[in-house]
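WARN  no MSA supplied for this record, continuing single-sequence
INFO  ligand: zinc ion
INFO  echoing inputs
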Amino acid sequence: MEWLNFVVCLTFAAFITDVFSSAGNEWTYRGAKGPEHWHLDFPHCGGMKQSPISVATSEVIIDMERLTPIVFKNYDTSSSVDYTLENNGHTVQVDLNVKESEVTGGGLPGTFVAQQFHFHWGATDERGSEHDINGKHFPMEMHVVHYNAKYGNITSAINKDDGVAVLGFFFEIGRYNDHFQEIINHFRQIMYKNDMVDIKSMPLVQLMPAKLSKFYRYLGSLTTPPCYESVTWTLFNETIEIAEEQLVSFRTTVYENVKDDVNYGRDISDDFRMPQCLFRRRVYASHPDLQYAIDTTEDPTAAGTSSQPLIALLISCVTFLLLSM
Ligand SMILES: [Zn+2]
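INFO  complex generated
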């Protein structure tokens, strides 16, 4: 019977390894470890201040007194130390090796230091952004992640109420964007998960739109596990233009899998979480132009397509409330 004992032990060991390898540290945008299941391994993901959200422009509160223009410090300089571009299996991320760019003002609860920026994009132009405006999604969204200077580093700040500030930018298809091309040119060096390469740093201001005074503000979370509810969100109204062919590079060059994984290969496209319930939160806006009702008379087809996801979101929020009672 010794062999049976051995087989049982081996099976148990394999089971334990499987459980432990997936528990707590593996997550994806699809399947059994996808967003609907994140809260099982990462309880914060089931919280009531989660991100992203759908911004309903007719519901926002104008707060010009508090939401003054954000002050950008050292966003127009590039340091001598390079950026590190990496494929982490979930996104393309650029780590800022020198922490010298800061934001303050604009109703932010402190001074925040830029740590990294990364992207969320869709397999088609109709989707990709995490946040949406009245149900309208954009083909890509960039997040510039900052930590509150008073905590000293991102690791200490990441789970504090006022620990993180993310600046969110929406993209739209348009002109060829030279600044982003400098990043895209290195995609072939980070095709697979855990690949990284040092690249030339560039002033952050080159990656951002020209007008930054109109923005939405709300309190939310990291949009990936562990989903800590530590983020002061700023979503800018002006979009960044990028050429379709450049978006295609995002869609086709970088993969979720490690290089040696011969059984599995998938590009990172559609690395976004669905909008979460707002619950008691309010969204604020820095300018009266940002508060408007959706004009349903002008383009009835567009209104029809955009209201459907909002209804689905409403139903899921009501279900969430009923289940948590
Ligand atoms: Zn993000």
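The two ends are 51 Å apart (CA to CA).
INFO  checksum written, moving to next record
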